[in-house]
């Protein structure tokens, strides 16, 4: 089965790329071929060709705005979904196709960093051989490089490009996924730097010092406060605006509210990422309000406890956009997002 997709959102710095990532990861997980065109702040990327479109079994449009060149899909089996629907139920959408109706989607994950030697040939060979022995699908997701591949494919392991320092997950999906995860953990444990499997573990200063790739490659302003009382969504947005730009906080608040009116910015379980491009900042700015009290963010994902405001300058550089999209893509990792939720110290959030 082959799917092509287009993603777009009002701001073009977060949801566009997050939706593309979840589509690609879900397709890889379910054994579906997919190509995703993004229409974001960096322009139109990975453009769908006429051949891509006519050969596709399904076109998915993930957008809260009118996409560019929509007429090219006339006469093609296409479906449009709000961005939030893709982020919250992408597998449910894909599994509605007859090809995937019977798929078992229980999964287990091994999260790790690649060491200096990358993926040694002998380990790659063993991984490929073992992956073929399980009934479950086994695939590697290179989060840093935004590439995924079936672990049964020797060529795919080369193409996924495991380079020193890359942040990755090996994922097993299917009826014997738990057993596969156990066996492959034993194989990979001596080759890669494992991230702690306890999802409730705080991010620590040691981890961020050891792995500089987790920090952005541009200067970032950072603000953090812990809510001392129950706050509404409006009060949270107002507080974030005052943290980021006290002089024009009302104007920034209005921009954040308008963005929320388009669609909820809840990004992961218990995490919201309100984000805008604004003339009131000169460099990327992150402001975080953490609350022990659940905040209703008007999202299908439920209430949130960690609200991360991201504001980019009116004319962001490529490095700034890449830093922003790296943050949003990281939130797609359940391990990453839940570590943020359970981190109690400001230094655990600071980029």
Strand content: 25-35%
The average pLDDT value, as a whole number, equals: 81
N-to-C SSE string, H for helix and E for strand: EHEEHEEHEHEEHEHEHEHHEEEEEHH
Q: Largest beta sheet, briefly?
A: 6 strands, mixed
Give the uncertain stretches in residue-range form: 196-208
Give the CA-based shape: globular
Structural class: alpha/beta
Number of DSSP E strands: 16
Terminal CA distance reads 40 Å
Oligomeric description of these chains:
single chain
Q: C-alpha Rg, in Å?
A: 20 Å
Summarize the amount of helix as a percent range.
25-40%
Describe this protein's structure.
The protein has 351 residues and is α/β, with parallel strands linked by helices. 33% of the residues lie in helices and 26% in strands. It is built from eleven helices and 16 strands. The protein has helices spanning 15-30, 50-54, 83-95, 121-131, 154-159, 177-188, 205-210, 233-244, 249-262, 318-330, 334-342, and strands at residues 2-8, 33-40, 43-45, 58-63, 78-81, 107-113, 137-142, 147-150, 167-173, 193-194, 221-226, 266-268, 270-272, 275-278, 285-295, 304-313. Strands 11, 12, 13, 14, 15 and 16 form a six-stranded mixed sheet that branches. β2 and β3 (43-45) form a beta hairpin. The two termini are 40 Å apart. Mean pLDDT is 81; it is low at 196-208.
């Amino acid at each position: 089965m082959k799917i092509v997709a287009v993603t777009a959102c009002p701001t073009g710095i977060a949801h566009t790329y997050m939706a593309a990532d979840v589509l690609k990861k879900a397709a890889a997980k379910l054994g579906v071929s997919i190509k995703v065109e993004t229409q974001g702040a960096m322009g139109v990327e990975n453009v769908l060709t006429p051949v891509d479109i006519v050969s596709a079994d399904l076109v998915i449009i993930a957008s809260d705005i009118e996409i560019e060149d929509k007429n090219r899909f006339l006469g093609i089996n296409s479906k449009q979904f709000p961005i939030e629907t893709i982020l919250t139920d992408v597998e449910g959408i894909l599994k509605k196709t007859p090809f995937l109706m019977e798929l078992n989607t229980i999964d287990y994950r091994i999260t790790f960093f690649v060491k200096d030697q990358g993926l040694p040939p002998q380990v790659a060979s063993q991984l490929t051989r073992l992956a073929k022995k399980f009934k479950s699908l086994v695939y590697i997701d290179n989060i840093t490089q935004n590439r995924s591949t079936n672990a049964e494919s020797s060529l795919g392991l080369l193409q996924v490009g495991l380079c020193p320092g890359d942040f990755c997950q090996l994922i097993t999906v299917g009826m014997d996924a738990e057993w596969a995860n156990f066996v492959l953990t034993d194989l990979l444990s001596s080759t890669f730097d494992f991230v702690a499997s306890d999802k409730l573990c705080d991010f620590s200063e040691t981890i961020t010092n050891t792995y500089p790739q987790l920090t952005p490659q541009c200067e970032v302003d950072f603000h953090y406060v812990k809510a001392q009382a129950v706050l509404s969504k409006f009060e949270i947005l107002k507080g974030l605006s005052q943290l980021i730009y006290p002089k024009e906080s009302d104007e920034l608040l209005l921009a954040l509210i308008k963005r929320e009116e388009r669609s909820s910015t809840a990004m992961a379980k218990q995490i919201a990422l309100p984000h805008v491009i604004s003339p009131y900042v000169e460099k990327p700015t992150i402001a975080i309000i953490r609350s022990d009290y659940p905040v209703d963010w008007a999202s299908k994902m439920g209430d949130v406890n960690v609200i991360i405001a991201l504001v980019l300058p009116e004319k962001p550089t490529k490095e700034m956009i890449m830093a922003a999209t790296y943050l949003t893509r990281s939130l797609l990792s359940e391990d990453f997002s839940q570590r943020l939720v359970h981190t109690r110290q400001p230094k655990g959030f600071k980029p």
